[in-house]
């Protein structure tokens, strides 16, 4: 029987899908690549397409649908030929995104969440896209636009309706530009302070050249002696991680770079990917030399798709120069890197979920133990580090462990890249030695009037003015890079409510404490915002948060209550002010107006009893 006919696809679509599958060898582990390509080609992933993909890769259609339904950038309903994704991060909201969204709606004649009747344009919200230093921002297909205003939104919509491509919104000669020029035309680097390790000029290949003259044991010893710790937030010793992988018996080992920096307010890896991609590849190659790996994967978050051509160009250049591929440096050392693009899933920043995604599965965290260093990608020993960590490793091999160790603070060696955004005059990336205070960083960024600072993003710590002298280090205020500044005009509970809605949206849904518990926390914060909370609700927040932390499967659940817990601790009056008893010492816990909103909508009229201005 003709498979194409059985699947019910038009012949041209079936041929395009078959070619996409064939391009990755019909490999089910490349499912995310297949589905992304089908989405780009056909603007959706239809049931018939999933059936054909399943037959090509030897999977069930349900397995394919499980992946297709997991990622936000994949759709099982037709999208417009142009999809506009408006960043809905709290920083973008405060910078004017609601007005920008309204301007797009008016100009396009559709609401957020809709597609135009002619199938030309879809308009939707998406969480943080790593551009908080130049908010409001949006993705239009694979193009990024920053610093949006309502007026500019109208101009963009008019240009798209007139047939202009998203690329032409950046430059008429967009395709004639180099990949690096395309990237920097779209996004400002905003490097505010270049430190000694990563953002000052670095020699090309110096670290790898020295690593090729060292045996693997010595490379690992050098990394351990430097005190380098993982820069993504957890802070696990990098050399120790490499040593565990190297000592695990296996015929194959894998190096994975986690470039899925989805934590709201974090964008420093974006800058490294733009300005130091060679240093990143060099660091991954050094890690491969140290642990005996021949395969590498660079997992790039889907929101950074505009950097894809730049990274592919860098990888090819390194192959051409003998720095990737077979016989690196003229030695018996083979190692290559493939680029794996994500598709809009915050949870894939967690290393187990990231590995699942690389395997062509839904991005769900893996049960531990075993840990990735002994049994990770496809069951093989796997080293997962982020962009900043690999870049530091290359510099350490060049300059030496002592050079790196001498910088920073006790237990927090070297430099750290801070992504500073929000209510400050100079948002951007600051490379500074560990050990400075929040107050010192605020002075550099022009955020002296801050009333609150979120250190570490949504899953970090929210501090008040009386804690601005605390130290930015692993042993005090640890951060993967995000520092979001809020001035006194901002509503702390609005910020907390946003962060909780973010976690509700981004939970993978695997475990009940995270899937359900965060919904309850979000609803409870809504009660505080509406003035409907009772004093007992504060204890409820604490108890439920503790349960979620203790029983969740992965890092998302163990950190998601932190916006609530840290603001309860550091801003107690904000909560206390909303639970003062009423004059008769009775506090309403039920909002009748909210309860009948759905009924009003369905009946298309108000309530004779509860609406004063009711008329039949």
Automatic annotation (TrEMBL):
GO MF annotation terms: 4 iron, 4 sulfur cluster binding; FMN binding; metal ion binding; NADH dehydrogenase (ubiquinone) activity
Cofactor(s) listed in the protein's UniProt record: FMN; [4Fe-4S] cluster
Key words of the record: 4Fe-4S, Iron, Iron-sulfur, Metal-binding, Ubiquinone
Alphabetical list of InterPro entries matching this protein: NADH-UbQ_OxRdtase_51kDa_CS (IPR001949), Nuo51_FMN-bd (IPR011538), Nuo51_FMN-bd_sf (IPR037225), NuoE_N (IPR041921), Nuop51_4Fe4S-bd (IPR019575), Nuop51_4Fe4S-bd_sf (IPR037207), Thioredoxin-like_sf (IPR036249)
UniProt cross-references to Gene3D superfamilies, sorted A to Z: 3.10.20.600, Glutaredoxin, NADH-quinone oxidoreductase subunit E, NADH-ubiquinone oxidoreductase 51kDa subunit, NADH-ubiquinone oxidoreductase 51kDa subunit, iron-sulphur binding domain
Start and end residues of each NADH-ubiquinone oxidoreductase 51kDa subunit iron-sulphur binding domain: 493-538
Family named by the database record: Belongs to the complex I 51 kDa subunit family.
Protein's recorded name: NADH:ubiquinone oxidoreductase
Species annotation: Thalassovita mangrovi
């Amino acid at each position: 029987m003709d498979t194409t006919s059985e699947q019910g696809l038009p012949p041209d679509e079936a041929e395009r899908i078959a070619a996409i599958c064939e391009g990755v060898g019909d490999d089910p582990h490349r499912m995310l690549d297949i589905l992304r390509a089908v989405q780009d080609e056909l603007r959706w992933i239809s049931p018939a397409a999933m059936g054909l993909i399943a037959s090509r890769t030897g999977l069930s259609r349900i397995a394919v649908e499980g992946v297709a339904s997991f990622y936000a950038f994949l759709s099982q309903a037709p999208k417009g030929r142009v999809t506009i994704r408006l960043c809905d991060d709290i920083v973008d909201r405060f910078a004017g995104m609601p007005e920008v969204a309204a301007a797009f709606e008016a100009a396009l004649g559709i609401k957020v969440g809709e597609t135009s009747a002619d199938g030309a344009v879809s308009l939707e919200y998406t969480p943080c896209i790593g551009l908080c230093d130049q908010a409001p921002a949006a993705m239009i297909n694979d193009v990024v636009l920053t610093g949006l205003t309502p007026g500019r939104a109208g101009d963009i919509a008019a240009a798209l309706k007139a047939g202009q491509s998203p690329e032409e919104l950046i430059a008429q000669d967009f395709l004639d530009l180099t990949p690096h020029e395309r990237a920097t035309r779209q996004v400002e680097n905003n490097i505010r302070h270049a430190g000694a390790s990563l953002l000052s000029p670095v020699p090309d290949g110096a670290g790898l050249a020295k690593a090729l003259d060292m045996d693997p044991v010595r490379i690992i010893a050098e990394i351990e002696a430097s005190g380098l710790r993982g820069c993504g937030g957890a802070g696990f010793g990098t050399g120790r991680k490499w040593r565990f992988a190297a000592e695990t018996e296996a015929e194959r080992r894998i190096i994975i770079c986690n470039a899925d920096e989805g934590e709201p307010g974090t964008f420093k890896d974006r800058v490294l990917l733009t300005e130091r991609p060679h240093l990143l590849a060099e660091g991954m190659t050094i890690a491969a030399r140290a642990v005996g790996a021949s395969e590498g994967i660079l997992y790039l978050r889907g929101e950074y798709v505009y950097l894809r051509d730049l990274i592919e160009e860098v990888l090819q250049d390194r192959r051409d120069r003998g720095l990737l591929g077979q016989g690196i440096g003229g030695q018996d050392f083979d190692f290559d890197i493939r680029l794996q693009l994500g598709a809009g899933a915050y949870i894939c920043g967690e290393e187990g979920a990231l590995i699942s995604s690389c395997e062509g599965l839904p991005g769900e965290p893996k049960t531990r133990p075993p840990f990735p260093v002994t049994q990770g990608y496809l069951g093989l020993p796997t080293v997962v580090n982020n962009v900043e960590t690999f870049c530091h490793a290359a510099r350490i091999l060049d300059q030496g462990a002592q050079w790196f160790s001498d910088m920073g603070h006790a237990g927090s060696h070297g430099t750290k890249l801070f992504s500073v955004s929000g209510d400050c005059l100079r948002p951007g990336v600051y490379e500074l030695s560990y050990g400075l205070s929040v107050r010192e960083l605020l002075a550099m960024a022009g955020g002296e009037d801050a009333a609150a600072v979120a250190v570490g993003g949504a899953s970090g710590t929210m501090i008040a003015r009386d804690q601005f002298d605390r130290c930015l280090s692993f042993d005090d205020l640890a951060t993967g890079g995000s520092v979001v500044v809020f001035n006194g005009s901002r509503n702390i509970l609005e910020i907390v409510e946003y962060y909780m809605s973010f976690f509700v949206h981004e939970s993978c849904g695997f475990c009940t404490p995270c899937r359900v518990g965060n919904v309850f926390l979000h609803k409870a914060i809504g009660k505080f915002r509406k003035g409907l909370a009772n004093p007992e609700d504060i204890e409820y927040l604490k108890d439920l948060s503790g349960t979620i932390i203790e029983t969740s499967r992965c890092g998302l659940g163990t950190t998601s209550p932190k916006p609530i817990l840290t603001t309860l601790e550091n801003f107690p009056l904000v909560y206390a002010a909303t639970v003062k008893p009423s004059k008769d010492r009775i506090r309403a816990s039920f909002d009748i107006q909210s309860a009948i909103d759905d009924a009003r909508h369905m009946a298309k009229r108000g309530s004779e009893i509860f609406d004063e201005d009711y008329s039949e």
